[in-house]
Amino acid sequence: MYSGQAGKDFLALELVAGHVRYSYDVGSSPRTIRVNLRHPVNDNRWHDVNIFHRTLTEHVLRVDNTSKVDVLPDARSVHFDMGDDLYIGGVPKALYSSIAKQVGFSIDVANAFLIPCIYSIFLDKWSELKIGPRFRLKHGSL
């Protein structure tokens, strides 16, 4: 999952070697949170993945019942200033290079198109995008 603008604020949620990684930048510098469980999450089972804020400066990544917290060092820049697009399962080819630099993965990984198995996405406390267990993306954006 990716939302952002090249060279500006962004958020990215990835599966790297079977573990969830959340990368983001709210204007201070790119930051990354990883939740490493005993077993990888690419195990053909359903998992709960949440990104939320307890305070303006705390970003929390929770996978199932394990959480990792990242506290921003500077409270002057705490809000995302991103574009309107939210990509789930992949991004347009035109964005590969800029996102790879921004998020910090190799271009080979950026070129890999992911077809996710997603049941639902909560965009905020009340808005749920109900997708279902057999959802498949054809072009990588929603």
Provide structural commentary.
The chain starts with a strand and ends in a 12-residue tail after the last strand. The protein has a four-stranded antiparallel beta sheet with strand order 1-2-3-4, with no helix packed on it. The chain has two helices and nine strands; from the N terminus they run E-E-E-E-E-E-E-H-H-E-E. The C terminus is likely disordered. It is mostly beta strands and 142 residues long. The protein has a single domain, classed as Sandwich (Jelly Rolls). A hairpin with a 5-residue loop joins strand 8 and strand 9. The radius of gyration is 15 Å and the shape is globular.
Short description:
With 142 residues, the protein is mainly beta. Helices cover 9% and strands 31% of the residues.
Count of the separate structural domains: 1
What is the N-to-C succession of helices and strands?
A: EEEEEEEHHEE
Helix-residue proportion: under 10%
Spans of at least 5 consecutive residues whose pLDDT stays below 50 are 107-111, 133-142
Rounded to the nearest angstrom, the radius of gyration is 15 Å
**Main sheet record:** 4 strands, antiparallel
The CATH topology assignment is Jelly Rolls
Overall average residue pLDDT:
75
Beta-strand residue fraction: 25-35%
Give the overall form.
Answer: globular
Question: How widely separated are the two ends?
Answer: 10 Å
What is the name of the CATH class?
Mainly Beta
Looking at the overall shape, the CATH architecture is Sandwich
According to DSSP, the number of beta strands is 9
